[in-house]
What does this fold into?
Amino acid sequence: MENNIIETTKKSQSDFGVLRNESIISDIREFVENECRKPSSKYGYMPFIEHFVPVVKYAKMLAEKLNADSEIVEISAWLHDIGSIIYGRDNHHITSSEIAETKLLEIGYSREKIERVKHCIIAHRGSKSIKRETLEAQILADADSLSHFDDVNVLIGAYMEHENKDLKTAKKAVLEKLNNSFNKLSPEAKIIFKSNYENAIGLLN
It folds into this structure.
């Protein structure tokens, strides 16, 4: 993302104030966890612990360090992959944004904030090359990539179990994934989390 977008967004943060709607954030977290627990969940409950929670953790850390709107960031982080849970991974950036809109309207979230959340969700997929217009959108994309550094062993196990790879091949695939994830980070996130990347690579070696 262009630096001028980040700088412009940083300057506008004072407009948001420091108050967060903790009740809505809690409702959204509960909604996502409940969907992951349902027998109809495409990937079971584990993505909630192994992916959603780490993404939220990194998103909140970056929001604080970069003076972003933490409410928009956290709500977007909880909802960014909900379409995968309910419908599967195909076009999950779109289905997730649609589910987010429906749920947030249902609980009385403002239309202006819903649009900002939707943009974060739609733009978070690195493979789609959708331009990120806000700092919050870039933070979600960064947090999504950073979550991979927390679950090296889980990723190895997934490649072995679901793609029938042996240990050596699985490690090679994970190494490539981590390198790609790090390369996709914004310059700010690379500086802040370089040690996380190095530690993850160290585990593989």
User: Anything to note?
Assistant: The longest helix spans residues 46-66. Confidence is low (pLDDT under 50) at residues 1-18.
